[in-house]
Amino acid sequence: MASEARRTAADKTLDVLEALARHRSIAEISEVTSLPKPTVHRILQTLVQRGFARYLGRGSYTGGPRILTLVGSHQREVDLPNQVLPTLEELREETDWTVHFALLTGDEAVYAAKLEADRPYRLASRVGMSLALHSTSVGKSVLAALPEESVLALLKRTGMPARTERTHTDPARLLEELAAVRRRGYAEDHEENEAGVIAVGAPVFDHSGTAVGGMSAATLGSFSDEGALAGCGQAVAAAARRFSLTLGAPAHRSGLTPGQPDGPS
Known about the structure:
Blueprint: H1 9-19, H2 26-33, H3 37-50, E1 53-57, E2 60-63, H4 65-78, H5 80-95, E3 98-105, E4 108-115, E5 130-131, H6 137-144, H7 148-158, H8 171-184, E6 187-190, E7 197-205, E8 211-220, H9 226-246
Antiparallel strand pairs: 1-2, 3-4, 3-8, 4-5, 6-7, 7-8
Helix pairs in contact: 1-2, 1-3, 2-3, 5-9, 6-8
């Protein structure tokens, strides 16, 4: 629950909706959310009007049908980490690198699945970790699927903070790299997000041809060479394309190609 110092109207509404999963009366919800009863009643009335709650009578409420509708609408996206595991397992076996699946969330990506390589080390990445788009292989692969104006608008919002001494912090230089990413079909991270770690990444597209995230393979730089980087990059691009096709992506929008950002995004 959000702290009182920054508890917005949206926070209060979500707190009531979450409490409604286990409590029924205004008094109970007021107690667990620390909200005044009139506020809880007002929020519940709005939830009832919008279909997210139902009034059962005698001051009792329960969840409404709109909750199930939203679950159904988002089930595919929510279940993507499980759907992608077989593809990630194949990719890990092929590359012998640690592999990830990340979902695009606003102006960043978030690791949704990770399979460690059978190596004598473990990478610091973890499920739930947020990723900057300009400094990671997954992020750059997603940016390469966007029109240039969209990339520049995003960079204006987020900035390009340096994660390591190798991070690109100049938009013009990044745009040049994104053109190379499209030609290769995958993005490279040469210790730009984490010192000592290199990675390759490729975007994943949904049924509409929109990049919704990406796959990556990563290892310690001391465990690899340029030949291995290129081979793993091609493997990641192929795996991402296969998974995109299972999501219904059009064949011409299931991977990076030169000029792709000029198409629908």
